Amino acid sequence: MIHSKDPSLDFIEIQFSLHFQHCLVPRCELEIVMRVKKLLMVSLNGTLHVHALRLMRRELGLPCDFRDYILGIYSYVFRLVDLEIVALVDWDDELGKARVEE
């Protein structure tokens, strides 16, 4: 059976996608940290389950390995209270202001 699409093209597309994600995440890292900080600030007690972040991973632009990567690098911003609970280390007054207050 002859396929209309060359299998090597699938590999190239996957490779390009992985390369794109690898290059894009560091550029957006601070934006990602800001988004997660804002979510933690509006949460009831400043904590969220990692599972909840996994469910919103695409909408937030989080990388697949955000638990180890983002939470590990930014340990001065986030801390793991439990294996699956993320807490905000420090409240950011600038993020806490409403735009109307500015």
Describe the structure.
The protein has a single domain, classed as Arc Repressor Mutant, subunit A (Orthogonal Bundle). Strands 1-3-2 form a 3-stranded antiparallel sheet. The chain is mainly alpha-helical and 102 residues long. It is 57% helix and 12% strand.
Quaternary state of the chains: single chain
Q: Look at the structure and give the mean pLDDT.
A: 78
Helix content: 55-70%
Strand content: 5-15%
Q: Give the SSE order as H and E letters.
A: HEHHHEEH
Low-pLDDT regions? none
Task: List the strand order in the largest sheet.
Answer: 1-3-2
Total number of beta strands: 3
What is the 3D form?
Answer: elongated
Structural class by sheet pairing and helices: mainly alpha
| Span of the ends, CA to CA | 66 Å
How many structural domains in the coordinates?
1
| Largest β-sheet summary | 3 strands, antiparallel
DSSP summary: helix tally: 5
Stated plainly, the CATH topology is called: Arc Repressor Mutant, subunit A
CATH class: Mainly Alpha
Task: Chart the SSEs and their pairings.
Layout: H1 7-42, E1 47-49, H2 50-55, H3 57-60, H4 66-73, E2 78-82, E3 85-88, H5 93-96
Antiparallel strand pairs: 1-3, 2-3
GO molecular function, one term: RNA binding
Organism: Vicia faba (Broad bean)
InterPro entries: PORR_domain (IPR021099), PORR_fam (IPR045040)
